[in-house]
Amino acid sequence: MACALTDVRARLLEMKETLEAFSKSGEEAANVVELDQQRVGRLSRMDALQAQAMSQELTRRRALELSAVRDALERIEAGDYGACEACGEAINPKRLELDPTVRLCVDCASAAEA
């Protein structure tokens, strides 16, 4: 299990680095769009506003994913990784392999969605 946790930790650290790099590169696209119609036509401005909104949503999703990765790393350090936060049972290793940031077993995740 220690070897598996080492692999999971390495994967999570790689995910964290990637997300942080994307966050830095995406900040410019989320900047405020100028409303100067002399410089930018109405359709171009609408395209820019749409691109800005998409970038802001992507930034929000990356922040949530980065938070989940950091939480998973904290659970590894605390020795709680792989245990369901709701019922305390072990989370299926295949589920953790698919998404190493999951906090709930299948049963508790299904109950939470209902």
Secondary-structure topology with pairs:
Layout: H1 2-26, H2 42-78, H3 93-98, H4 106-113
Helix pairs in contact: 1-2
Descriptive terms for the model:
mainly alpha; 67% helix; 114 residues
What would a concise description of this structure say?
The protein is mainly α and 114 residues long.
Strand content: under 5%
Number of domains: 2
Q: Which sheet architecture does the biggest sheet show?
A: none
Number of helices: 4
The proportion of residues forming helix, as a percent range, comes to: 55-70%
The number of E-state strands comes to 0
Task: Please tell me about this protein's structure.
- With 114 residues, this protein is mostly helical.
- The chain has two domains: 2-81; 82-114, no CATH class.
- Helix content is 67%, strand content 0%.
- It is built from four helices and no strands.
- It has helices spanning 2-26, 42-78, 93-98, 106-113.
- The longest helix is centred in the middle third of the chain and has 37 residues, at 42-78.
- The mean pLDDT is 86.
